[in-house]
Design brief:
globular, Arylsulfatase, C-terminal domain, Alkaline Phosphatase, subunit A, eight-stranded mixed β-sheet, four-stranded antiparallel β-sheet, 452 residues, 14 helices, alpha/beta
Length: 452
């Protein structure tokens, strides 16, 4: 089999259910939805860590953050093999567009082509992405290539927000266009884990508009690939590095924080219209997947597993649940979390929750969190929810089939649940997490209460 080119397109802070092909509005990301229809979409895909640099570092090493050194915004440990090194050994030329400084140390990756955020209209200019993609492909003539194209949307500042006006100069704002579709607050129904408040609607509309501009970037990149004549020998993969930057999503191990809209289009290998809603996969698996596609050796110590078999329609045991982790915010504040999701149940261990420590993260910037706390002054239920968000509980368990937005924690203060089904689910999740912590030598495994 001829070695394919690999085009990896990533979004920044896009929720797993925003695209229409993953349950969202069909008018937000129509280009991504078409890409999904041309390949396979994974309905149970997660990122290993719900914040950008650890998520991306895990992808590029195939290792959990505590095993590659990049638990937060640190460089990857020296000696940990990188994806660009593995596929470079079999002749792949690698390039990167945007988010360059979120893979450290930069010089280790050996990029032959680099475009920084400022060269791409603050990472928000579709034409700049299309032009850069075309330039990279043309310069790679005769070579197999890997291009990591990282859109900066829908990361904050959102389109039309005060933060955008205040955070970017007029020149910077003039370097990128408005989205091809701008949403209004009236049509922006917030997800169920957020209250339906006017300011929440306003900010969610700004987020949806930014997601649409991400789709515009995807369109420009794919058009450049098509114009190059290399689309038929190129694997296209899309995912988001974590959930949207709102409370109960990004920088948390809730479903809304770790679920990602993973799409793979592989001409002649993956039939169009493929859907895999049965197997849990992680973007940690993409390292081994890309190595197998490229015919490269998978280094020792890689934690992820190739999904090529799943892409080709073969089942695979051991994919009935997924583990996710969180270590620290972009400000360097540590809030250690571990989670197990199995489709029906979602379990989280908050190692940081002691009843006194207060959680604070970038997902609380903007309009939504202040609106929630203001409304909580007269709304008892919302007061309980905002208080819980800041303090949490040592353990959380949610029956996602009936409580998909994780609103009702089933673990009582004494670490038990109130019914046999949830008790069995809690025991099972604890066992899964204990086994994972032992297998990966998680530094917190001795602190985990269920290990005693």
């Amino acid at each position: 089999m001829t070695r394919p080119n690999i085009l990896l397109i990533t979004a920044d802070d896009l929720a797993g259910d925003t695209p229409g092909s993953f349950g969202g509005r069909p008018d937000v990301m129509p280009v991504l939805d078409r890409l999904a229809a041309e390949g396979m979409r994974f309905g149970r895909a997660h990122v290993p860590a719900p914040v950008c640099q650890p998520s991306r570092s895990a992808l590029m090493t195939g290792r959990w953050p505590h095993r590659n050194g990049a638990e937060g915004f640190e460089p990857i440990d020296e000696g940990v093999p990188l994806l660009t090194e593995a596929i470079g050994a079999v002749g792949y030329r690698s390039g990167i567009l945007g988010k360059v400084n979120h893979l450290q140390p930069e010089d280790r990756f050996g990029w032959s082509f680099v475009r920084q955020q400022a060269e791409l209209g603050m990472g928000r200019n579709p034409q700049a992405y299309g032009d850069a993609t075309a330039e990279f492909i043309a310069a790679s003539e005769g070579e197999s290539w890997f291009l990591m194209a990282n859109a900066h949307d829908p990361h904050r500042p959102f389109h039309g927000s005060a933060a955008e006006r205040e955070g970017y100069t007029e020149e910077q704002q003039a370097s990128y266009p408005d989205p091809s579709r701008v949403f209004t607050a009236q049509e922006a129904d917030p997800p169920g884990f957020l209250p339906d408040l006017p300011q929440v609607r306003q900010e969610y509309a700004q987020y949806l508009s930014s997601a649409r501009r991400c789709d515009d970037v995807i369109a420009a990149i794919l058009a450049a690939l098509e114009d190059s004549g290399q689309a038929e020998r190129t694997v296209v993969v899309f995912f988001s590095d974590n959930g949207m930057a709102f409370p109960f999503a990004k920088a948390n191990c809730y479903l809304a924080g770790t679920r990602t809209p993973l799409v793979v289009r592989w001409p002649d290998q993956v039939p169009p219209g493929g859907v895999n809603d049965d197997h849990f996969v992680s973007t940690l698996d993409l390292f081994a997947t890309f190595c197998e596609m490229a015919g490269a050796e998978i280094p020792d110590g890689v934690d992820g597993r190739s999904v090529v078999g799943l892409l080709q329609g073969r089942g695979e045991p051991g994919r009935d649940h997924v583990v996710t982790v969180f270590h620290e915010t972009n400000a360097g504040n540590r809030y250690e979390m571990r989670s197990v999701q199995d489709g029906e149940w979602g379990y989280i261990w908050n190692a940081w929750s002691d009843g006194e420590t207060a959680y604070r993260a970038e997902n609380m910037a903007g309009l939504t969190w202040p609106a929630m706390t203001d409304a909580a002054e007269t709304d008892t239920a919302l007061k309980e929810r905002t208080d819980f968000y800041q303090r949490r509980a040592p353990e959380e368990l949610y029956r996602l089939t009936t409580d998909p937005h994780a609103l009702h924690n089933l673990v009582e203060s004494h670490g038990r649940t109130g019914d046999p089904d949830s008790a069995q689910a809690l025991a099972r999740a604890r066992a899964h997490l204990r086994d994972w912590m032992d297998a990966t030598e998680d530094p917190l495994r001795e602190r985990y209460p269920a290990s005693r």
